[in-house]
Specification:
heterodimer, A: alpha/beta, seven-stranded mixed sheet, 8 helices, B: alpha+beta, five-stranded mixed sheet, three-stranded antiparallel sheet
């Protein structure tokens, strides 16, 4: 079959914030031809619908909206002549031959031959089906992000009286958005006994609009025939099981699900690249290099971040090392040590570190299992503490990190959160 | 009067206890940086918010232009501003930071585009 053929040094799958930052860094590192393959009709990814502020505080020291944030990256990418194919969906990645097969509405079936690959596909929302909420299947059920796209990009209002399940950031931001657009947000229901998203979103999106937050509650049933008529909301016990006799009926015409995000790794799995079972993303080292040496990964496809600033930083590293790999300049003789989760640490990223990197300074990012106050974040090799930092508060919704130097790595690194008295 | 304010300047979310008399702040406790202290003082006396929303594009029914206030607006004026923005439609092309609604609701704040859209 005749296929459209493209050659490049670094091929990047996904034109959201991760792909854009990787592309820019790859160019700046010296890669000649960098190609972004994007399935949407424009660059920018999910930030196109994130019209709210809160982006860029750590990177640009100012508070930008999603479109302003990605706009700066698109401007820079165009300045550097980063090439991109829109409306193009990657079907297959082959890391042995360094070939990508994509289908493009402009070129048809397309084969891309490259020196290295950056996976930057981002993540997808969990749905009602992922958490198996009982009840009927009427109109009016949306994931918070799909409602956000409809309202913010397509001028389609999704409902008038809304219950939101899950206190993740997108859910809370949609609570404010729906309120501003004239809908009544009845309540936000959260299974855990703590907030899933950022505190500032609780203040600005719920408290500002007088929207009640029901912690340790869940939706036990959805009612409605053609359209949602309401949901049953019940408190949960310590085992997170709903207490059925305390369930109350809450009238609404719309339910938004903000119940978590999953890295989108169909391509990665099909390519036979190792996936970390906790993050559901590819396991990487500090170069953001996956188990396939020519394939790098960054952003929410690796682990779901809470701040895009972190995504940009990590993706710039992926782009830089992908460019070096394509130019034959990446350290081939690696001395791999493993990052091990210790007390109150759910996962670590990167999962391994190449200790042979000269003067390497590596930040290992992690999330805690439980909220805690007055703690120390510690990294150690065996009994030797190589990093220690006091933190007043840790929370599963906010990522933490430890910094280590490759010169000090005698073996595997354990990261733990230790309670201070 | 005492008021607990959760700082929203950064993701850290410090809980700041502010004590004041009317609109005058007497003391603040629990902040970790200068910006946090400024935030707590403003939030105690005159809470303000950045307003972000969308405006219609004339002749293009299925697309919207994202906009923001170039300065924070008083919290109690958010819905008045929305009423004005709801009746606005822009003509393309629009450049990022073009003023879409000047001096909205007499606040001295402009509503500006956050995205460039070609005609």
């Amino acid at each position: 079959m005749a296929m459209y053929n493209v050659k490049c040094d670094v091929a990047i799958i996904g034109g959201g914030p991760a792909g854009l930052a990787a592309a820019i860094a790859a160019k700046e590192e010296g890669a000649e031809k960098v190609l972004i393959i994007e399935r949407d009709n424009a660059l920018g990814g999910i930030l196109q619908q994130c019209i709210h502020p809160g982006f860029g505080l750590s990177r640009f020291k100012e508070e930008l909206t999603g479109p302003e944030y990605y706009g700066r990256f698109v401007d820079r990418a165009k300045e550097l002549n980063v090439e991109y194919m829109l409306n193009s969906m990657v079907l297959q990645v082959n890391h042995e031959t360094n070939e990508i097969v994509a289908t493009s509405s402009q070129y048809g079936l397309t084969q891309v031959q490259e020196g290295s690959i950056v996976l930057a596909m981002g993540c997808r929302e969990k749905t009602r089906a992922s958490i198996a909420v009982p009840g009927t299947r009427p109109a009016g059920l949306y994931t918070a992000g799909s409602a956000q796209r409809l309202v913010n990009r397509q001028n389609i209002m999704v409902g008038k009286k809304v219950v939101i399940l899950g206190s993740g950031d997108i859910g809370m931001i949609m609570a404010r958005r729906m309120s501003l657009e004239g809908a009544k947000v009845v309540m936000v229901v959260e299974l855990m006994d703590y907030l899933a998203g950022l505190t500032r979103n609780r203040v600005q999106c719920l408290d500002d609009f007088g929207i009640p937050l029901k912690l340790a509650h869940t939706i036990t049933k959805i009612e409605g025939d053609t359209r949602v008529t309401g949901v049953w909301v019940a408190p949960v016990n310590e085992k997170k099981q709903p207490i059925a006799e305390k369930a109350e009926f809450v009238e609404c015409d719309t339910v938004l699900f903000s119940v978590g995000l999953m890295p989108e790794n169909e391509l990665t799995r099909k390519a036979g690249i190792a996936i970390n079972p906790i993050t559901n993303g590819p396991a990487v080292n500090q170069y953001m290099q996956t188990s396939a040496p020519s394939v790098f990964a960054c952003g929410n496809v690796v682990h779901v971040n809470d701040l895009v600033d972190n995504v940009s930083e990590e993706s710039a590293r992926a782009g830089k090392y992908a460019a070096r790999y394509a130019m034959g300049k990446l350290n081939a003789e690696q001395k791999t040590v493993t990052c091990v989760t210790g007390r109150n640490v759910r996962y670590l990223c990167p999962q391994t570190v190449d200790a042979a990197e000269e003067d390497g300074k590596v930040s290992i990012y992690f999330r805690v299992l439980q909220p805690e106050l007055n703690v120390k974040l510690i990294a150690r090799c065996g009994d030797e503490i190589i990093y220690s930092h006091k933190e007043y508060r840790v929370n599963p919704g906010e990522m933490n990190h430890v910094n280590v130097e490759t010169a000090k790595l005698a073996g595997d690194i354990t990261v733990e959160v230790v309670k201070e008295d | 009067m005492k008021k607990e304010i959760i700082c929203t300047v950064c993701p850290r979310g410090c809980h700041i206890m502010v004590e004041g008399d009317g609109e005058k702040v007497l003391s603040a406790d629990g902040y970790s940086c200068k910006r946090g202290l400024e935030y707590a003082n403003t939030e105690y006396a005159h809470p303000v918010r950045i307003l972000t929303t969308t405006v219609k594009i004339a002749g293009v029914p299925n697309d919207l232009l994202p906009v923001r206030s170039n300065q924070p607006v008083p919290k109690e004026k958010l819905f008045d501003c929305m009423d004005v923005i709801r009746t606005t439609a822009v003509k393309l092309p629009v450049k990022r930071y073009d003023v879409i609604v000047p001096n909205i609701c007499g606040t001295g704040v402009d509503i500006v585009a956050t995205k460039t859209v070609e005609a």
